[in-house]
Amino acid sequence: MINKVKGTYDILPNEIHKWHFLENKIREITKKYNYIEMRVPIMEYSELFFRKNEFSDMVQKETYNFKDKADRNITLRPEGTAGIIRSYIENKLYSFNELLKVYYVGQMFRYERPQKGRYRQFMQFGVEVIGNKNALLDADIIKFSSEFITSLGLKNVEIEINSLGDLKSREDYKQALINYLEPFKENLSNDSKARLKNNPLRILDSKDEEDIKIIKNAPNIIDYLSFDSKKYLSKIEEYLKIFKVNYKINNKLVRGLDYYSEIVFEVKANIKNFGAQNVLGGGGRYESLISELNGPKMGAIGFAFGMERLIIALESENLFEEFKNNLDAYVISFGEEEKKYAVGIFEHLRNSSLIVDTDFKGQNFKNQLKDAINKSAKFLIIIGKNELDSNTVTLKNTKSQQQFTLKKQDILKKIKEEMKVHYEDKL
Ligand code: HAM
Question: What is the DSSP string of 194-248?
């Protein structure tokens, strides 16, 4: 037996309704917020991700990299933003001089230690708005993620925001943090030790107990924000209040990627037994990524949600309906000639927009009946010798248990009448 690749998973037919539910919600909300879908490749040239200012573990340690047959360096995308920006620049979408509001749904790849809510191939729903820096836009993006969560029915979820400030604020803060952490260097975890030089902000995000104790008294980023960055944050907060978004400021929130500046935010599940991977989604503003990739200097902001984590959250909150086979009718027949007669009826009903199934295995009557019941057919259509000889059908409503003998041409009309009485919501 060949097993699935470590860190991947199968979605079996009895689970797919959960994904369809989520995907439908995504289509609804992106329509409401006026975002258009954009699709970019899963593989990109490695240099797109290995930029000179990107020190994150996600890129440095967790990417799937390989050489193609022509010796090109290729990476399976670990996230969606860089590919969207690459395409934005390559296709000169900036020349339209309009704000580009796009969304994407697709597979991402990170070589992480798999656990509940963390996979090596996973799905993200993300959005990016490219072409402006504006506090209203930033608040609107946070409002979007908050409304998305509510639209799914999730309640025990918190939004945290922080400002990383502009480049100058961040450089000042990084230095202050390094100065503070240096004396504790020997007590820091190995990961944090390694980050001290290149990526000290990430230490704030450490889950190591000793690190957490040390970080507790670290300088606060808010004290290092420039006047403009502070003003920008308070404007965003004003709009968040108008939008009635509930949020908390978390000055230790830094995010896992290095391209952010100014506002960053995360959506966290506060659900019992959810597991360690409780960040459902996150995002923020990024300025330098576009110019780093040789595009024009312009602002952009976005977020991404991990779709598996959303599904785990929906499951934990019992928000999925039971898997149900949605079969309207099942055509049962016995005998060679009867089967041909039955197939005509099956085809007629299938063309009338009903969901119909029949026996494709040559089963006996008892097993056909079992099959129909297993598939929760609302109606059984039974064809035996009597029906064939008299050009009729036997129709059974499995809910009321009533049975009718009908002329062949009346069957659709009768099913619709019965549906109206017993399954009004279906019509
Ligand atoms: P990220 O925080 O790296 O941000 O990922 C976003 C979400 O993807 C996470 O909150 C999590 O739910 C999910 N996720 C990440 N890694 C895994 C994994 N191994 N298994 C399952 N789910 C995972 C970004 O990717 C940014 N591109 C977001 C963004 C868009 N920022 C601006 N625009």
Answer: HHHHH-GGGGGG---HHHHHHHTTSPPGGGG--HHHHHHHHHHHHHHHHTT---E
- Residue 153 has what pLDDT? 96
- Indicate which residue's Cα is closest to atom 5 of ligand 1: 304
Does residue 118 have its Cβ closer than 6 Å to ligand 1?
A: yes
Alpha carbon distances (Å) from 86 to 41, 44, 81, 95, 110? 11, 9, 9, 15, 20
pTM: 0.94
Tell me if 408 sits within 8 A of 345, measured CB to CB: yes
Q: What is the pLDDT of residue 426?
A: 53
Ligand 1 centre and the CA of 284: distance in Å? 12
**122 ligand 1 Cβ < 6 A:** yes
Ligand 1 atom index nearest CA of 257: 3
Q: Are 289 and 106 in contact (CB under 8 A)?
A: no
Would strands 279-286 and 300-306 be described as parallel, antiparallel, or unpaired?
Answer: antiparallel
Q: How far is the CA of 343 from the centre of ligand 1 (A)?
A: 50
Residue 427 has pLDDT above 60, yes or no: no
| pLDDT band, residue 425 (cuts 50/70/90) | low
How far is the C-alpha of 277 from the C-alpha of 275, rounded, in Å? Answer: 6
Nearest ligand 1 atom to the CA of 281 is 10
Q: With 60 as the cut, is the pLDDT of residue 276 above it?
A: yes
Specify the ligand 1 atom closest to the Cα of 280. Answer: 12
